[in-house]
Amino acid sequence: MKRLRWLVLLGLIGSVVGCLEQEELSAPSFEGDTILAPSEGDVAEQHQGLQQTQVVYVNFTGVTVTACPTESYCSDAAGNRSTIISRFFGEDSITWAPYSNQSGRTRVMQELEEAFGPFDVELVTSRPAGGDYTMLVVSDTYREGLGVAPLDCGNRWKNDIAFVYRAGEFSPEMVANAAVHELGHAFGLAHVERKSDYMYYLADSFSNRFTRSRYDGEHAQNRCTEGVEQDGPGLLFENLGPRRFNGHFADDDGSVHEAAIDALYEAGITSGCSGGPLPKFCPRDNVRRGQMAVFLDRALELEPATQQYFDDTLGTWYQDQANRLAEAGITSGCRHREYCGNDEVTRAQMAVFLSRAFDLPPATQNYFDDTNGAWYEDAANRLAEAGITSGCGQRRYCGQDRVTREQMASFLARALGLI
Ligand SMILES: [Ca+2]
Ligand SMILES: [Ca+2]
Ligand SMILES: [Zn+2]
Q: Among 88, 123, 159, 169, which residue has the fewest nearby CB atoms (within 10 Å)?
């Protein structure tokens, strides 16, 4: 049964931007930039559900999009057909020129990656060979306004086409903002009042996040939820799903240290640097001595200390752990009665921490040429002999380099025999 029902926004034709004098070029309006996609009835075939990643083809290279027969609704990325061509522009077909600004293209992709990073969206710049995908056309072609998209409540339509045009006239930041905004409509978001929200009804680069915000009373005639406010991130999680990731953390996918990081998590040695639907480990952050104390304490399950060893750890979150490390003979601090918990851990310090913490046996040979005579030479050799490090290449250990959290994860996981 076909029961397509749509509402077309009142006054959508020619109402996009009132006046465009020189100064106002910096903030064109998105007013009237949606047509409402059918959200009930015969759309089952368009709905792939949350099982599949929403693919978005960002088309910078130009395309001819044709209208649909007047009585039907379509938003068919693979077929280059859209109701918007007839209903919004009143034409049979439009040939969209490429977006010629190369650095602008890069900027748009960056903004899209950032805006939709938390969600299960895959952005590509060449046309997928098959499967469902939404197409975002970014073009230099002139049309009044800046963009238009279907407002697709619930993101039932997986093959929408959204448009951003006259891109060459505006700054890459503005075009990037419009790109996120129009895709936001195709994923079920309407206009809101908050200026920092991507769905604010005026285009500008200061709109750079999705928020929970009141609907814009005047500029959000089309909207997808009851009530006075729109929960942008909540709706996107519902309509797109959270981004998929491997293991326990989202920000270490593909890292050579990922297995070590996940092993540390499973052993209760780290819980990462932030939680939520996309837990993070912050793999590229440098490790500080305070964090090192906490990691080692958890890894070794040290006994409580009987005294206070340092004056500069009093009241810090790593006070107990630094004392335990000192009591176990793993550290004597950085200076007399000082632990220097905010200092970044060097590879030299890491060698000494680990060789003491795991009581590594003396090495039978010299592994590195750049450690000869250094205070950590013996410790670095013990680490190499135990298979915990092979150095930084070419018989070098690079003792002065800082240790990142992901590197530390590999050091620790190997020392503990977890990987
Ligand atoms: Ca959609
Ligand atoms: Ca991961
Ligand atoms: Zn809009």
A: 169
**Do residue 215 and residue 292 come from a single domain?**
no
Q: Which ligand is nearest to the CA of 265?
A: 2
Question: And the tokens for 87?
Answer: 């209903």
Q: Would you say residue 134 lies in a domain?
A: yes
pTM: 0.71
Domain that residue 279 falls in: 258-415
The 10s digit of each residue's pLDDT in 55-101 is: 999 999 999 999 988 778 899 999 999 999 999 999 999 999 999 99
Give 64 Cα–ligand 2 centroid separation in angstroms: 40
Residue from 292, 394, 282, 410 nearest 350 by CA? 292
CATH, residue 189: 3.40.390
CA 186 to ligand 1 centroid distance, Å? 4
Best CA proximity match to 371, nearest among 325, 338, 363, 416: 363
The structure tokens listed for 6 are 């749509």
